[in-house]
Amino acid sequence: MIIAIDGPAASGKGTLARRIAQKFGLTYLDTGSLYRAVAASLLAAGGNPADEAAAAAAARDVVPGSIDEATLRRDDIGQAASVVAAQPAVRQALLDTQRRIARTGSGAVLDGRDIGTVVCPDADVKLFVQAEPEVRAERRYRELSERGQTANYDNVLRDLRERDARDRERAQAPLKPADDAHLLDTSKLDIEAAFRAAVDIIERHNET
Ligand code: DC
């Protein structure tokens, strides 16, 4: 079984995807971490995320899991990841890795922006997780504060809107729900309620 979970930054899709993978005994792949790893290795080498040739080379060399989690989760790395992700050569370089992982064992849960539309268009279940920008900014702000990082809510909201626009408006594999995706709005749901709603959708699919 392949489950595709797409959605904008801080929609809650990562937490949801990890829990769903655990519940159904599936491999979990956070595809955003691949784009983040490309951005981090490029920046560490003094490269420019907008340089397509350099970004594509970094994407071809990327080793999943090679960069520590704290670096990957930084906000500047998220922004740079969104810039490298707009480049077709980068997306192409990461496609095979994602599809290979999707087919491992009894299947996988992949979360990202284009899983249901491009990476796994034949996924068994597709979820598109969304939430109001202000709700997502509040969650991200709280997360950063809990990690002891100084954060400003207005800046977090501005950065999030900027990243949303770049991810939605790019020409290649833009963030959008697949035609057959189930929409899950988590604006008014805590993680437990969102998880139950997602499990209901998957179990309903498994019964048919
Ligand atoms: O999900 P995330 O915030 O970790 O993703 C970081 C960036 O990577 C995001 O702004 C856009 C890009 N991305 C993408 O273009 N396609 C994916 N499947 C996953 C992430």
List keywords for this structure.
208 residues; Rossmann fold; alpha/beta
Structural class: alpha/beta
Strand content: 5-15%
CATH class bucket: Alpha Beta
Give me the count of strands: 5
Quaternary structure type: single chain
The strand order across the widest sheet is 2-3-1-4-5
The percent of residues in helical segments reads: 55-70%
Do you know the CATH architecture?
3-Layer(aba) Sandwich
Radius of gyration over C-alpha positions, nearest whole angstrom: 16 Å
Globally, the shape reads: globular
What is the rounded distance between the termini?
A: 14 Å
Give the tally of structural domains.
Answer: 1
Condensed summary:
This protein has 208 residues and is an alpha/beta fold. It has helices spanning 13-24, 31-44, 52-61, 69-72, 75-84, 88-102, 115-119, 133-146, 153-169, 191-207, and strands spanning 2-6, 27-30, 108-112, 125-130, 182-185.
Description of the molecule:
By secondary structure, the protein is of the alpha/beta class. The chain has one domain: Rossmann fold. The protein is built from 10 helices and 5 strands, in the order βαβαααααβαβααβα. The chain has helices at residues 13-24, 31-44, 52-61, 69-72, 75-84, 88-102, 115-119, 133-146, 153-169, 191-207; strands spanning 2-6, 27-30, 108-112, 125-130, 182-185. The protein has a 5-stranded parallel β-sheet with strand order 2-3-1-4-5, sandwiched between helices. The two termini are 14 Å apart. The model has no long low-confidence stretch (mean pLDDT 95). The structure holds 2'-deoxycytidine-5'-monophosphate.
